[in-house]
Amino acid sequence: MLFVGQAIQMVLVIALAPLVTGIVRKVKARFMGRIGPPVIQPYRDLIKLMRKETVFAENASWLFRAAPYAIFAFTWVAAALVPSFASGLMFNWAADVIALVALLGAARVFLALAGMDVGTSFGGIGASREMMIATLAEPAMLLVVLTMALAAGTTQLPGVADFLISAPITVRVSLALALVALVMVALAENARIPVDNPATHLELTMVHEAMLLEYSGRHLAMIEASSQLKLVLYLSLIVSLFVPFGMAPAQSGVAAWAFGGFAYVGKLIAGAVLLGMWEVSVAKMRVFRVSEFLGGAFVFAFLAILLAFLTREVMR
Amino acid sequence: MTQAYDVSHLLAGLMLVASFALLYQDRIFAVLNTFAAQAIVLSLAVAWEAWTQDRPHLYITAGIALGLKGIVIPVALHRMIVKLGIHRDVEQVVGVGKTLILGLALTSLSLMLVLKVTETAESFTREGLALALAIILLGLLMMITRRNAVTQIVGFMSLENGLVLAATGAQGMPLVVEVSVAFSVLIALFVFAVFVFRIRERFDSVDVESLERVRGDRK
Amino acid sequence: MTLLLLAVALYASAGLAAAVFHRRLLAIVYPLCIAAAMLAIIAGLPVLFEGTSETLHLPLGLPSIGLHLALDPLSGFFGFIVNGGVLAASIYGLGLDREHDLSPRIEPLVPVFAAAMNLVLIAADAFGFLFFWELMSLSSWALVVANHRDPANLRAGHVYLVMAAIGTAALLFAFGGMAGVAGGYSFAAIRDAALDPVVAGLVLTAALIGTGSKAGLFPLHAWLPLAHPAAPSHVSALMSGVMTKVAIYGVIRIVFDLLSTPQWWWSLPFLVLGAATAVMGLLYALLDGDVKRVLAYSTVENVGIIFVGLGLALAFRTTGLEAAAAVAMAAALLHSLNHSWFKSLLFLGAGAVLHATGRRDFDGLGGLIHRMPVTAVFVLVGCLSASALPPFNGFVSEWLLFQAVLAGPEFPEPLLRFLSPAVGALLALAAALAAACFVRLYGIAFLGRPRSPEAARAREVPGVQVAAMGMLAALCLAGGLFGGAMARSLQPLLLMLTGAALPGRASGPTALSLVAFNASRSSYDAPTILAFLLISGVLTTLLVHRLSSRRSRRSAAWDCGFPDSSPSNQYSASSFSQPLRRVYGSTAFGSTETIDMPAPGDHRPARLRVGFRDHAWDWLYLAPARFILASSLRLNQLQFLTIRSYLVLMFSALIVLLVIAAVWF
To answer: ipTM above 0.85?
Structure first.
């Protein structure tokens, strides 16, 4: 039963990933006054890329060919571990938040290495900037995790979600600050505006796209799918931690799962719409302003912990 | 009890966040808007204390905070900047990143200190004092890490916001003190305004470093 | 114990044979070392698992005191680290070229170095400990300056000797303080003595200076990136992977075992210096352009991480949180072991690169993945482990350490409670910087196109050396998969050091899970994760290859339509670190960039000059050196005074002494 649930989740996240990206693009287009491509366009893009011939650079090594699959596998496994429609599925225990962050870190390292494999200057730019952004994002991410652990007493995601479903609703300033910090980190990690622009391909500030320049055909499809999957992962992480309502608790039946599934899809769509609205309303930053943006995330996360300490001490 | 605490915690926490936002901004109008927001949150916090603790004279304090610091002073500063054509960037002595880290260290320090010193006091007082001290220190930090005279004024008044917060948290502060504090701020604003006007007239800039250059402290 | 002494004797005889019989028997050193290392591992393991200890009193050394030796779980664990490292380095040594690489300056010293490290671990009195510690320092110093024709090596040796002398002097003070007036120099006597808190604090400071300077704790690290790379690569692996662990052993022995009444504030220097070391080590590494120096700086970082683990363990233990102390201690111990494996692997890999290309600067490397395919795979494993990525071993200890940090809010002491998020953030920063550092190392040296003709001509190193690296790579993977079982096997040691142990085998979801406190709080199951990764990776690959077009061809790199023929147009090591330098460099090193642009119409090239200052080196090393130089010049003038001046000097000295006496009594 739990195994089936886990399998459903793994298929569900993959099936939904291009849709979420499609919705974001559609929303952006509508707000800019364009009609925009249909929301299923990312599916068509992936299929088209799969059908295309794959071209390698002459100097590409085995690492270049293996990396797309490795990146996809790391991201997919990480996405399978985040509670989506139900918590406490088969393998949710296999990794807590820290291991989850590390799995995404491994995917990032493979992407950066693949960017450097061919030996062009663009790949190097992307790799070095991506690693720089990661160094700014990870401390903030750890502090967010620390705030969650402080509130829920666990770093297992189902445990945190269960805690938030069952705990009484009060005004929780520190959790709100942690949410802001997590959203900022998620924007940076997914190469969204204002840190990177997913819509451009050739720009001096490019980070993510610069690493994929040499990829084509099925390999490019795998990497595109991984980044769509990563977006779903972060959206699921945010909704499962901060709006877990509707999620089926551990040891619940099929009915609860079905309800949880609808709630999950609804929350993902809402998240995608919000992301699209955000992206049309802010401008991209210069790459060296990213340190200030993520420094802000760090400050929010640190304040979250300080306020949590304060509340604990005062209410004792 | 818990609800009263939660809301006052939320408001005081928002003031702290606003203090950090003041340190983070690098455009003068953004600084003014953030300052106005902090003053409005302050007035809400004070009004909430007045409501929950049934101390009606605190409404006057809230009114002063809202009217004077939430509206009058930001608007006045805004007009002054436009009128004098002051440079709209915030000149920083220390970079934003380092200032924020320093701010976090100061906040930790004040929480640690106040929580340790006031172990026997009531929880509202402890909370208010701890956050107020943090806001005061952040205001001071803003004054020493920014060179623009306008941002120094804002730093000073944000410091004063912290004082008011502390005064509301500590029960039994008479109204006279608050009114006098409010007036002293107003006077300080006048002094600063004259000061800004004079250095602007003299040096065509409100960078206080120009003043130091005249005194011979700097070349 | 007897077996271990036999192993030490075997080491000594190997060194002696090589020294006496000179050239012809040099090749016998490494087989003998392998035998001795295996013997020592076999001798040490039962003690570690069963938690027993043996002591021995030999009538050697100082008259009437003799030499106390003891083998307890702590010595057994670090003995495992030391001899495992020696084993790998010796297997690598088998592949050294008899004509060119073997040298009578190096080979006799390697077993002596190994023996000295083993003896430090089992010494059970102050004299023995210090004697073998000095032996270890001197033999490694001789290995550093073995290639003395290079002036850089001589300078490295000089700095190392001075730092080692300062460190030993500090340890001398530490043991003097612990022995007290009674003068009990055996560890048993020291344990029983109750120390005055002030004296204990001084002992702690001295012990931190003594062991920290050997381990490479910031700001005492300056010698390490000079000395470790100067030695031959397999010796670098020993120094970086293993000798720093002996220093860690020293600090654990003194602080957790010998000093009787630890205070909570003792953890502060560990936490602050450890976190600073971790971040600074990597920032140095990211700015350096030499493969082996980057690895040495990464050792500095890992020592910082271990010190943070020890500091947390100390803080938790002294505030009564034994379970968390066990987690932090397990993290520190496992990281010592894991680091010895992946750092040895990386240094052996650097040695292979050096052997194949003759270069260790990033600007001369590149594209080695095509020419040294097997080495490239193993070094990749080392890089992933060092970046603390699952499913390799570096992540296991890092995960445990983060779990300990997450328990930080439970500290009753406010200062520790507020410090713990800051320490955690610095550790997370260090982890991300480590990933950047190793992406840079691997991406520049092994990927891309060769930047020099030597790199283009590189060939794979001999099979034995590849096998040595393969063994370590396998250990890195195994350590990552079975981290849970390894952490639980430290049970006796953790009980001895912290008074608690990790939760038992039945507590996790599977028998191989790593569980920090209890399974509902946090768990990490590497085998399951790896199985998931393999299944999803293989499944996807098969599916994609079945469904998608399989047409593929090779063509020139696209590179946005700007194909560049010259490999020098690739991203270089210093361009890779430019964003990080811009973000962190101005704070950490006061780095500056000046661009010299020619005027329009001028044909001279534009230049970008990057400058930075090493504040630690300036303040801690140059300033005292300048002071000593100035005062010695001043004192030198004393030799050229007139008789009258001498008399004045002596008279004033007398008066000063009289005044002191008058005030004192």
So the answer is: yes
